[in-house]
Design goal:
There is one protein chain. Helix content is 0%, strand content 49%. The protein contains no helices and 11 strands. The strands form 2 sheets. Strands 2, 4, 5, 6, 9, 10 and 11 form a 7-stranded mixed beta sheet that branches. The radius of gyration is 14 Å and the shape is globular. The N and C termini lie far apart (39 Å).
Length: 119
């Protein structure tokens, strides 16, 4: 299995910031895409932001200008800086690892980290 570990969730007031981190095994030669998805009760999981192996990023419209995804200085890590948080950002955030070119191919998920934005 590919173990994907998230951290950084918590409770924050509206307008505040959180930084999420995700780590996949350094033994994986190359990960094509790493990113963050989120899910709230009764809704399907939705894309938040992704970054590919070349550093290209993609964001959901709802978080553009507020969230920044970046690759870490440690291999197979990624961070999500979340600023100007809103109550509607409240969700469980899941890190996704997408390996398309090298083995083990597939999509791998972390267990999720709770982000709650509330006063």
């Amino acid at each position: 299995q590919v173990q994907v570990i998230e951290s950084g969730g918590g409770l924050v007031q509206p307008g505040g910031s959180l930084r999420l981190s995700c780590a996949a095994p350094t033994t994986i030669y190359s990960i094509d895409l790493m990113g963050w998805y989120r899910q709230t009760p009764g809704k399907q999981r939705e894309l938040v932001a992704t970054v590919n192996s070349g550093g290209h990023t993609n964001y959901a419209d709802s978080v553009k200008g507020r969230f920044t995804i970046s690759r870490g200085n440690v291999k197979n890590t990624v961070h999500l800086q979340m600023n100007s948080l809103k109550p509607e950002d409240t969700a469980v955030y899941y890190c996704n690892v997408d390996i398309r070119t090298y083995f083990p191919k597939g999509n791998y998920w972390g267990q999720g980290t709770q982000v709650t934005v509330s006063s």
